[in-house]
Amino acid sequence: MESIDIHCSALCTAKNRHLSLPTSTDVSTPFRFVIIADPQLGLLEQYVEKRPRPHHWDREVKLVSRAVSIINRLCPKPAFVIICGDLVNDYPGGSDRCKQTSDLLEILSHLNSDIPLIVLPGNHDLGNRPDVNDVQDYISMWGDDYFSFIFNRTRFIVLNTQYLVNDSKCQSSSSEFRQWFNEQLSIKNENFDMSVVFQVNIHITSK
């Protein structure tokens, strides 16, 4: 995808499967955060109204802009915001993908810079059968596609569930992800609660 020159100061990107966030001075302090899913600029005309191309996404822009405005006014402010995938509607290689991404970043750039923004991928961000190039394209724009972070006394595990949906074209990456996920689940620390963040529902069988 083409380079997009829009700076979103709130956006936090993970590297080496880890994201660092500032925590409270007193880590036992209760906190709240905001979950958003599927801003998916371009969704309404394609999937709800089933219009042919070209698609427009002015209504989605207004909805996401309204969400950002509401979040900025929350008091006390949230510890962070997580967008659970489907950031844009057009799949990798789609003609509208770059413009949708640019428009989304422009909206998100208005989120207060002291409210960390965290994103994770959905099927529209990687494709229904992602390959290595699709994953790298996402990482170059948004940072690692799966990672963990700690806030106060909670450890969050953020997943790329597309590896669990269809990994037929990215089996090596999927294998690395599954190993990492199992390692994360096996970490025992009574000082931390654990939360798992994802887009597609997953089913885990314990042995």
TrEMBL record:
Native species: Schistosoma curassoni
Give the InterPro entries listed for this entry: Calcineurin-like_PHP (IPR004843), Metallo-depent_PP-like (IPR029052), STPP_CPPED1 (IPR051918)
Query: For the Calcineurin-like phosphoesterase domain, which residue ranges apply?
Result: 31-158
Task: Report what the protein is called.
Answer: Metallophos domain-containing protein
User: Domain of life here?
Assistant: Eukaryota
SUPFAM superfamilies given in the database record: Metallo-dependent phosphatases
Q: Which Pfam families match?
A: Metallophos (PF00149)
Molecular function terms from GO: hydrolase activity
**Which ranges of the sequence are coiled-coil?**
none
